[in-house]
Structure formats: structure tokens, C-alpha cells
Amino acid sequence: MGERLREAFAAVEAEEELKDRTQAYLFRKTQGYSARKAAGRAGPMRWAVAVACLVLFAGLGAGLFFTPVSAISIDINPSLELNVNCFDRVVSVEGFNEDGRKLAERLQVRFMGYPAALDAVLAEESVQSRLADGEPLSIYVACDDEQRGGAMLDEVRHCAGRGRNIHCQAGSRETEEAAHAAGLSCGKYRAFLELQALDPTVLPEDVQGLTMREIREKIAALSGKGTAWPGCGKGNGRGQGKRHGQGAGCAQEG
Amino acid sequence: MRSEQEANRVIGQYAGLVRRICLMHLKNRADSEDVFQTVFLKYVLSTAAFKSEEHEKAWFIRVTVNACKDLLGSFFRTHTVPLDELVDLPAEAPPDTREVLDAVLSLPEKYRDAVYLHYIEGYTAPEIGEILHKNVNTVYTLLTRSKKLLREKLGGDGDG
Question: Could you tell me if B69 and B99 lie in one domain?
């Protein structure tokens, strides 16, 4: 049977016309077997596309790197903010009063991790001298990502724990936008809101030149209570901070 | 991409093989020609490096079988019936040849490749298993069953 099968299939061959048509088909489909050359000509275009993609990704990466997603507002008398990107790097420093602007110009904390940048700010002589004089310092972390904000607050608290009379809080960036619109840093703006709640005639420009202690004293005077910090159980919504006479008090808004 | 000379060489060398495998699966000349041309185009565009002539031949068998199955399984094929639904056998074939080819083509499709590769191309069951990516025992089973069916149709002892 095997022999019969072999003989039968031997009769089946590819016709010469079929081979000719196939050769013509291949010639046509490969553009005369020049597709490689065509591919070579397409090379510069492919390079151009690759370079364009690279530039695009680099642009997107740079955009991402330079876009702040959170801010750390530091207020004592120098009043300034560290704008922090999603990689926890400081991308800009902004002063919100004369001392703050001078300090922002002098500080070289750009592209530094925010804990190191915060350490650098706290180590500044102008800040240290005020802390030594018993001036309270406020640190406010503005971040819309609750998890990130919480982690930053922990880190900030860790840095501040080494200082005295430093009070930390965290909240959304909504505060940051409103504060900047009023020409104030976040920390000072929150103090201003407390003061305005007690005295509606107070304007942002009235507190711009004041230290945090001076604002706190006004609040204490109007409220008839002792000096208290946001998040210390007084007029601060969801604040959960603890009040410390000497250490750092911290709170995070929900 | 391979050169025109290489294309002409393999057409000369494997045209019969590809044509016969097409015949085993496809019932009309137009489909056969489509697959025939597709297989050689795939070769020209392929960058596969063949270790030997046997390796190259196995590549052609495998690619042709797959191309036939792809065509048969295509949406168009499964939803239409060609006007020329005729077995594409050589017109001038003698009666005995036609009878044998008819017997092979009447086998269930899954048997045909094994029969062709074993009886016509002389491959062993393990080699067929390797080429078609089938278990060797499955190939033995296919050959045994197809031998029985062919013996019923053609008579004889069925030995290769």
C-alpha cells in the first residue's frame, strides 16, 4: 500500500505556471526584493520617531519631577514654603515675608530630600535664635494624598522632634491655594483663619508682618484662653494634635 | 529578507511538497495557490536560520500545515461555501492514482498529515511528532487507525 501511495502522490506536482505566478507574487510583495533597502530608507524615520518618543518621555518625566504635589509651610518669623514633588524632592522654595524671601534666596535646598531640606531650614540661625527666644514654630504639610501627607507628617515630626516648641500639622492643598491667594503661607493662613473667626475685621495683610507668636497672642487675647495651637483641641475641626510645652505637637486633618 | 535566488531555490526544491500538503487539506485550486504563495512569502520574509536541509524541509511542512489550517479556520471559510468546491486532483491522473488520492483525502483530516509524512516523505513516528508538535504515541495511533481505514478502502496488507 505504501508503494501505491507514493506513486499516487508522485503524480501531484506543482505546475510550472504556479511556480511562475509565485515567483512573480514574491517579487511584487517584496517590491523586487528591495524591502530591505526600503527598510534602510525608513531608518531615519524610525530614529526620528524614537528620538521624538525619548524627548516626549523626558519632557513628561521632567514635568513630573518639577511638579510639586505637596508643600511644607514653615512659619516662625521667616515664613516660607518648601514645594515637594512626588519623588519627595524639594523643587522650589518660596518666601512669604521679607525674612522668608531672604532665607529662601540663601537656602540651597533645591532638589534635596524634604527631610534634609527641613533640617537645613531648622538649623538656620534666624530660626534657631527665635526658637531660643521661645518663639513657637509652625510646620504645616499640605498634601491632597492622605497617605503621602501622613507619611510626610511623620517625617516632619521626626525632624521637628529635635527642636523645641515646634508644632506640626497636615491637611489638604486646598488650604495652600487659599493661603497663597491671600499672600500667606499655609501655617500662617491657618492661624489667620482662627484669628478672623474671632475678629472678622482682620485682613490677611494685617498678619503678614506678624510672627506666629504675635498672631497666637492675638488669638489668645480674643478667645480669652491661653495660647493654643491648631490641632490642640481648640477650633481646629478634625485636628488630633497634642499640646506640648516644650516638644513638637503634631496633628493631621482627616 | 532573503534574496530572489534563495526564493527560487526553495520553490524548485519544495514546491511539490507544499503543493501536496495543500492538496491534503484544501479542496480547490484557488485556496491551494493562496497557501502555496503565502508559504514561500513567509520563507522570504523569515529570518530563521536552518541548521540543515532537513530542518528547512521540516519548517516548510510545519508552515504549510499551519497555513492550511489557518485558511480553513478563517471566518470567511467557516461562513461561506466556495463555488468550486471540488477536490483539486490532477486532471490527467490515471484511475488508480485518483482512487488512492481519494482514499487518503477521505480520511479524517487529523490523520492525513501523519499518513502523508510517513508514507510519502518517509518520516518516522517520532520525527512526525516533532514536526507536527504531537505526542509520539498520538502519531502511532493516527498511523494505525489510518492504515486500517486505507486497507478497508484500498485493500492490501497496509504495510508501508
Answer: no
